[in-house]
Amino acid sequence: MTPPKQNSPSDISASEIAEELGSLQLEKRPEGVLLPIKAKPGAGRNEIRGVQDGALKAAVTQVPEKGKANKAILELLAKTLKLRKSQISLVSGDAASQKVFLVSEIDVDELRAKIADAL
Fold this sequence. Notes:
The protein is α+β, with helices and mostly antiparallel strands. The protein is built from three helices and six strands; from the N terminus they run αββββαββα.
């Protein structure tokens, strides 16, 4: 018996992406935009896996010790969203799977568009 096919990011329709992005809880602050992240350290590969419970799901291969996974998530966000690492900083969730990153020098709509392009 063949297992059910898993949806890859390229299999997701535009309407599904729009729906996911609508549930992403981005918050504008004077310093930038707060981006909630649901972290999955120790994954098979580094990737953005969509939106879950209002947060962007980020999977990284690094283990959650001594900030390695946090650094890997920051690098993944910078690469995937085409941002400078200096624009992204962890503001909460240092040792938790639920994290919040601050993305500076960007507005909510521009960040949402970058995330849509990445999904």
